[in-house]
Amino acid sequence: MRCLAAFALVLVSACAKADSAPTADAADTTDASPCTGQPWHEPVEVTCDGLDNDCDGTTDNVTVPPVWYADADGDSHGDPGVRVLTCDAPTGHIASGDDCDDTQPLVHPGAAEVCDGLDNDCSSATSEVCSSGCVVRVRSDDNRRYLFCAIAATFTAAQGRCVAEQFRLARMDDQAENTYVRTTTNTAVGAVNVWLGGTDVGVENAWRWDDGAQFWQGGSGGTPVGGLYENWDSGEPNNDANEDCAELRTTSLWNDVACSVTRAFVCERY
After folding, report:
1. Is the omega angle on the peptide bond into residue 105 within 30 degrees of 0, that is, cis?
2. What gap in Å lies between CA 19 and CA 256, rounded to an integer?
3. How far is the C-alpha of 207 from the C-alpha of 224, rounded, in Å?
4. Average pLDDT over the chain, rounded to whole?
């Protein structure tokens, strides 16, 4: 009888311990080290939580990790065709994979449709509308986009039109670009003088492009700044009657003219 009583006591004690043992999920969510001295653990990793939940010596080797999409153009919309499966997002990757062109930051679902020849909002149902007299051209050697407008506008009005379409008034960086803009203006707008993005409105004789970079210091006898390109006509800029804005003449040379006069203009995305 004493033996039977002792056996019953051991059995009851074992059952009590089994009933009180924590489940695998409970142990893994409350214990920072589920594999340390514990007989229970998850059979496979299922969540990215920084723990080795299946006790195989590797942290977060989950069976189905999150998907991250490459965002090469930095517009917070990833390329659905370039993805990585891992717990932590690699540099340059995001959770959204709905971009239709990951080379253009102004192209993604929800973007405003502007006059640039691109499907900005990734929807063929939205039509691109350009101001009358404006046409988009893409330079073949570097794919840079320009907007050529035959609209006669003051310098300030031309700036505003460019900004509205996500451009700036054109900046000439070298002779090849200057030649391209002049030649394309002749065919897209006509053989007319056009506004460029250069001005010394802020500080007299300190000529800057529309993005703030100074390219010229002084009048007609001045000097280039920072090694930047210039193509002033002979005797220019001369500030005759307070001329503070740059135009591209039909000769391909530059001239300063009063910002209040009206000209056709060239916008550039840079």
Report:
1. no
2. 90
3. 9
4. 88
Q: What is the pTM of this model?
A: 0.76
Predicted confidence (pLDDT) at residue 23 exceeds the cutoff of 80: no
Neighbour tally for 242: CB within 10 Å = 11
What are the Cα distances from residue 147, in Å, to 141, 196, 197, 259, 269?
17, 12, 13, 20, 9
pLDDT tens-digit readout, 146-205:
999 999 999 999 999 999 999 999 999 999 999 999 999 999 999 999 999 999 999 999
> Which residue ranges make up each domain of the chain?
134-268
C-alpha dihedral, 232 to 236 to 240 to 244, nearest 10°: 30
Name residues whose C-beta falls within 8 Å of residue 79's C-beta, 6 or more positions apart in sequence: 69, 70, 71, 72, 97, 99, 102
The fold of the 134-268 domain, in CATH, is Mannose-Binding Protein A; Chain A (3.10.100)
Distances in Å between the alpha carbon of 60 and those of 16, 22, 34, 67, 145?
A: 33, 22, 13, 14, 45
